[in-house]
């Protein structure tokens, strides 16, 4: 795993990352000279790509650790004992753990703030004359990136310092108190609305760029996730319908009733399915937004092999028996997700994987199946159980699992139907960094995880704020559970 740096986000310099990016068209820029920068529109575009580049560092592999490390999809690999992962699985978080630092994500926020401030000034100087679409695209994406970062962080730490102006000088005032979650939610909503009003593009020049940059579809995915987190189900239904109606996205293929392939005899053949390649190759038709890594072109890694995998290495986690037991014998997702030794191989080729050059699998943030199952939750909450189960069955039959019949769910309560949907999300989205948030969002974390890791207090849902951040910013207060 990468070497974690424990600096305050308010004192960190902007990193110089000079690699090219296959999904983007020009070199990303994250370091500037005030005398010669922000004088051409191409520089603003390079700065935008720099934000995506910073996001690579912030999300790898922390994003899957935040979403899976405290939940029930994973079990500790006893051969790769790590104090940090042991603390996650046993729910013994403390403010000295490297993963409790929000520094990397705030670097992305700061980059977005730089873009928003300077593009506004560039427009006032006439530099965007005749380039209204470029102006809207750059700013719309910057708003979406900032909204995503604040939404991501508030689910982890709760209250946050709301920083909307760029920090460029170590001598700037760095003492900023945390705003309550209502203010954070308002900021997220405003930024998503600004991205939408900017007419952020629906697609870009290449299929990979359309999946690796924020589009209107990706904004609607954040809207859906955000509204579900806040239990605003009608709003979530509106946002999710825009994605389901978008022909850009389609479920990838996994199961075919006419197939003569026996994956039990040769499980490596499952690598040839579009579903498996969604994780091993990236940029599938199902993908809405993913973070792009490429070792051969940019030497960027997602470090997923340090967290998962059983390919001659010793990752942090293995598959939990609790999750494995949820798959029926006909459900081909089990062949994609696990090997026979409970190794988690979802993101890796089942044969021929080379760690030195292929540990660059993309991190899928949103895909169509995720949104469909969130929509199923919202439909269930608003009384449309049949509509909810129709969506669940689309996901199940794609995998070769038996569809639920009306007789199997008639008479179940809303809460029981929600359990069915959450089980389907566990099967479909396992190891993609979703499970912890699903359990917290639906109020089931204590019931499900209490017997596993002893969590018993809702205040424990939040993570501690890193001790270094508190030392450098005297206005920060620690989350109550860790005081």
Compact description:
Belongs to the SusD family. The chain is mostly helical and 483 residues long.
What does the model show?
Keywords: Cell outer membrane, Membrane, Signal. Residues 337-482 form the RagB/SusD domain. This protein is mainly alpha-helical. It has a domain at 41-241 and 462-482: Alpha Horseshoe (Serine Threonine Protein Phosphatase 5, Tetratricopeptide repeat), CATH 1.25.40.390. 47% of the residues lie in helices and 3% in strands. It has helices at 41-59, 62-68, 83-89, 103-124, 132-157, 181-197, 207-212, 216-229, 233-244, 274-280, 295-298, 304-307, 321-324, 333-337, 355-358, 368-381, 385-399, 406-409, 414-429, 435-441, 445-453, 467-472, and strands at 74-76, 287-291, 317-319, 363-367. It has a two-stranded antiparallel ribbon. The chain has a two-stranded antiparallel sheet with strand order 2-4. The longest helix has 26 residues, at 132-157. The radius of gyration is 22 Å and the shape is globular. The two termini are 29 Å apart.
